[in-house]
Amino acid sequence: MQRYFVKNSQIIDNKVKLMDQDAHHISRVMRMKIGECLICCTEDGKVAKCEIQEITNDFVVAAIIKWLDEDKELPVFVTIAQGLPKSDKLEFIVQKGTEMGASCFLPFFASRSIVKWDEKKGRKKVERLEKIAKEAAEQSHRTKIPIIKEPVGIHELIEESKSYTYKAVLYEEDAKLGEKSNLSSILSKLDSGDSLIAVIGPEGGLTEQEVSFLCQNGFIRCSLGKRILRTETAPLYFLAAVSYHTELLG
Amino acid sequence: MQRYFVKNSQIIDNKVKLMDQDAHHISRVMRMKIGECLICCTEDGKVAKCEIQEITNDFVVAAIIKWLDEDKELPVFVTIAQGLPKSDKLEFIVQKGTEMGASCFLPFFASRSIVKWDEKKGRKKVERLEKIAKEAAEQSHRTKIPIIKEPVGIHELIEESKSYTYKAVLYEEDAKLGEKSNLSSILSKLDSGDSLIAVIGPEGGLTEQEVSFLCQNGFIRCSLGKRILRTETAPLYFLAAVSYHTELLG
Lengths: 250, 250
Prior knowledge:
- Chains A, B: One of its GO terms (biological process) is rRNA base methylation.
- Two copies of one chain form a homodimer.
- The first copy, chain A, is an alpha/beta fold.
- Chain A is built from eight helices and twelve strands.
- In chain A, the strands form two sheets. Chain A has a six-stranded mixed sheet. In chain A, strands 9-8-7-11-10-12 form a six-stranded parallel sheet, sandwiched between helices.
C-alpha cells in the first residue's frame, strides 16, 4: 500500500489532510479514488491505515481507520558522517542509505573533499536531499525519514559525535593491512536504542591526520573487508553489515 | 599502485606486454615513466609487481620483479542472478557488485522484467558490462575479474544453479512476513571454496510462482532485513552480508 509521511499538524479529529506533492501523487500519479486505502506515517514514527474520504484539486482527506504496529527501523540510530564527495554521489548515498536504514546523514568537509559548498545554494541542496530521503523512506516502507544535516568541519563533527554510544572511522588503509575484527566487535556490543556514527572519507580517502584526530576522540578504526570500496559504496556496506548483524544474525 | 588485468598470453620471459587501453592508460592518463612500478593480475588470479622497461605509442613492456601473495577475493564464489532491470541499473549492479566481491553476474528474464534484450545489441551490452567489471576490479584491488553471462530464462538459470553449493532467493515478501534467519543460516554453513548463487527480482519483484519454482529446485527464501530494497540495492546488501560474515565476523 502506498505510504506518505505527514506532520502531526496534518492530523485533526482522526483525519489526515494531505497536500501539495502528496495530494498530487495520490490523485494524479496513483489515480486513487474515494474509498481506497493508503498508509500515513507520523513524525513520531506511528503508522496508520487510512481511507480516502475526499479528493479536491488542492488536497486529499483520509480517515484513520487503524493504527498499525509496524517495526521497520534498525534497532540502533546510525549516522553516516560522509566526507563531501563529488557530483551527485551524496544524493546516491542518501537514497540507498535510507533504504538500508540510516537515521541521519552528516556531510563534512574532509581534507581531500574538493567540492565547494555554496552557502546560498547549500540550503537548496539540503532540501533536495531531504526530498530524496523522504521518497526513499516511503519506497522502502520505513516509518521514519532520516535527518539531513548541513555540512560541518571536522571539529564540529567531533563535537557532534560526543553524544553517540559508538564511533567508527572506516579506513581503507586498514583493509590493506588486514584489520578485520573491529567492526564486528562494535556491532556485537550494540544494544537496542544505542547510537552509532561512522565516518567515511571522500574520493581521495581520509588523511592519516584525520584518522588520528578521530581516534584521539574515541573513534575506532574499522575496515570493510579486503577490497577497496568507492566512497559511495562504503556507507552501503557499513549499513548492510549493521542490519545483517542486528536484524538477521541469530 | 595502479593495477592492470592481463591475459597469460601477454606474459613472455617474465615480461608483460600491455597494449591498447591499458598502454594508453599507463602512458597518457597516468603519465608513468620507465622505471616506475605497477601491478599486473593474471587470468588465474596471480599478482605481480612489475617495473616499466619500455614505452612506445602502441604498447608498454614491464618486467616482473616480484610475485605478490595477495588475497583480496571473497572466500566463496558468489553469483548474482539478477532479474533484468530497467535502464542502466545492471551497469550499476555490476560496478558496485564487483567492488563488493561478486564472482559472476547472471542476468535472467524474470516475469516482471520489462526490458527487451536485443540479440544483436546484447553482445555489445555484455562487452560494456565486462569493461565496467574490469575497471571496478582494478579500482577495488581485486585479483580476479567477475564473469558476465548473457541473460537466460528461468529454466536455464535453474540448470545453471545445480553446480552451486548453496542457492538463495531474495524475496521481499518474506521481509514483510518477518523471516529473518535463513540468510545467516546459509552464511554460517559456508566453507572456503563453496559456491553460492542468489536470485534477485527486477523492479516489480519476483512472482510467487517464480519463487515456488526456485524453491522446488533447492533455493532457500531469504529476506534482507525489515525494509524493502530496490532491485539494485538488494545485491549490494547481500554481498556486504557475505563479506561481513565470511571475512570480518570472528
